[in-house]
Amino acid sequence: MSDQATTLDHASMQRAMRISVIDGMFGNASENMIGPFLALFALALGATKGQIGLLAALPALLSNSLQIPSAQLTERLGNRQRLVVITSGISRLIFIPIALVPLMLEGDIAIYAFIALVTLRGLINSIGVPGWTSIMADITPRHARGSYFGFRNVMCNFAALVGTLVAGWFVKRYDFPWGYQISFYVALGLGLTSTYFFSTIPVPPLPKRQQATPRPVGIKAGWEAISQHTSFRNYCFTSILWNFGVSFSGPLYSVFYQENLGGDPGFWGVVTAAGLVAGIFGHRYWGRLADRYGQKNVMLAGGIGAASVPFVWWLLPYWQLAVVAEFFSGFCWSGYNLAAFNLILEITPDESRTTYIGVYNTMAGLASSVGPLMGGYLADSYGLPLVIIISGILRWIGYFVFKYNVPVPSDTPLKWSDLIPFSQEMRLTRKLQEWMRKDPDSQG
Question: How far apart are CA 253 and CA 259, in angstroms?
Fold first, then answer.
């Protein structure tokens, strides 16, 4: 365990959690004014489906290959917060040259410059990810993480919803390139505001043992971390298959929406917003279940929907119904992602969490970088419907591998009836009524 001196007092922890919510709201509003529109921006530049796959794959490949060195760098520097502030600030400033690409370049040069800038942004931002994740673990009490991150995600999704709708209005009102450029510049302002708030969060120092003990870097460090804990090792390996299946079609849904369903690009903001609205309800719902029944149970429940999302999209008859597909996706993914984040915090040791997180992000991220490349290539060769079907099959395989190979013995069994809102409270009420009928003297 880590030194107790690194723990925040109650008042500081409460303040840190409040500021983290504000930071997350500005950050998510910023990301959703640019992220959901990158593939459509690339299409407007003339990109092929293979190039859009590269747009998703290259940032994931390079960013996640640096996760273990980033974790080691965080531990050696000691000041996690400063590293996150610097990297997030620089990565958000790259919004400026990204927005200027269509004004300065054209053709394939513009497309590959755009991909290179998005990749550079992701690469710089990823350096701070292990430190950010370990900070979140240190400023939240273990027993309330499900509820806290559920609430935080609700607020972040609400901010993301506003950001997405505003960006979609800009795109619809001013078209390409001006609508995208205005959105990206507003995203820059919101992102830098998020960076400022994060810099004010009270953060405990890394455990002394973590700073003082040099650790092997790269593959050796990764293998040592994996081999020590069965749950962590199996979680990493199952995440490879799951993330490959998810990323196989993940960046191509906006393309499927526009080209196969004939959807309006300006309406894509509304489609994305539907998923965010679902997340607002979903995080509150799943957060309570996570605290009561454990993270793995919630991942399995939400994962049923997350694994079925490709088939929902494949069956859509009209582009207007993309709103329904995204709402379904957003609700299910809100539970899966919330529990997945909390689970990685639970199964990693406090004193070396940044290294473990770096290992996990590397393995999962490398799978996520290969998926879009293969998916984009197959989409160009055989069409998007086939890619979406294959993605669904791979997700379900990953789901069952996770279910039967990641032991989490502390979880309370979750029944299907427990997924019904207020079912627990209703059962308790019935038990109380039965007890009162058996013991009339207790009434009154």
Answer: 10
The pTM (predicted TM-score) of the whole model is: 0.72
Q: How far apart are CA 363 and CA 8, in angstroms?
A: 31
Q: What's the full length of the chain, in residues?
A: 444
Whether residue 177 has a cis bond before it, omega within 30° of 0: yes
Instruction: Evaluate whether 372 touches 254 at the Cβ level (below 8 Å).
Output: no
pLDDT per residue as tens digits for the range 213-254: 445 445 555 556 566 677 888 888 899 999 999 999 988 898
CA distances from 147 to 21, 143, 295 (A): 13, 9, 12
Share of the chain above pLDDT 90, in %: 46
Q: Is the separation of the CB atoms in 290 and 196 below 8 Å?
A: no
Q: Which domains does the chain have, with CATH numbers?
A: 7-439 (1.20.1250.20)
Chain segment 87-105, per-residue pLDDT in tens: 999 999 999 999 999 999 9
Q: Tokens in use for 41?
A: 């921006």
8 Å CB contact between 138 and 330: no
Residue 224's φ and ψ, nearest 5 degrees, are -60, -45
Owner of token pair 């299946």: 245
Residue 228 phi/psi, 5-degree rounding, is: -80, -30
The answer to whether 264 and 313 are in contact (CB under 8 A) is no
